[in-house]
Amino acid sequence: MDALRGDAELWPNLVEVQAREAARGEIQAAHSPQLYKQVERVVSEGIGYLDADTTVSMRSLDAARHAAGAPCQAIDLIMQHEIDNAFVPVRPPGHHATEERAMGFCLFNNVAVAARYAQQHYPEIDRVAIIDWDVHHGNGTQGIFYDDPSVYFFSSHQYPWYPGTGARGEKGMGRGLGYTLNLPLRAATPAAQQKRAFEAALEEMAASFSPDLIIISAGFDSHLGDPLGQLLLQDEDFVEMTRAVKQWAASSCQGRLVSCLEGGYNLETLGETVRAHVAELSRGS
Length: 285
Prior knowledge:
By secondary structure, the chain is an alpha/beta fold. Helix content is 38%, strand content 14%.
């Protein structure tokens, strides 16, 4: 937020909205009631952790409700034609949270909640594409929509890496077969090679799927120098990937695009990377 506010050219052209909380029912459209109750209980009892990686404090449920509510609110603003697209800088992140389990720093799956919210509240939104470029595989998002042909999930990620999922052979099941696409990458894959593969994957998606809304799981831990990954992307690479997704949104769904922060743990670089990403989102809109 400091990096965004510090850009005297960009900031005056942005609309800042305080996130609302997601209602329990909105969260349970993507998660089991048992998970919601578990998060509620662990936070209220001060237990301190949901799994070995996922610690919580007494305000974590508030933060997680706002993190899930923010992309839903962004969708409302887009559908009301108040904004063209949105970047949602929330934590905790969400893409590891499965239907029944909080894990990997994630309590609720923010993008999955948003996708279900869009489908349930707007008749114009039937099909949603979710594009995840976090360094880690979005196992939770994949699992929630694995048998659902109305949500196409694509993830590019370092492999093998936490949480061990995301092989190329994971393509969905049942009616959802063919609506999951994974791009596993070796550590230290050259950025140019990663971008070429990313753009080819977008073309593959676009050939068989025309979304009514696109959501990005924007994990910036695939940045060169992030302590939790070994991929080599730099700010300009994220700008080009943003541009490619934005072009698909313009041609397929009237530019409806919500980008949701996932990972990104180098606090020396994260602000500038986010600023470059948001500048590209706002360009020409």
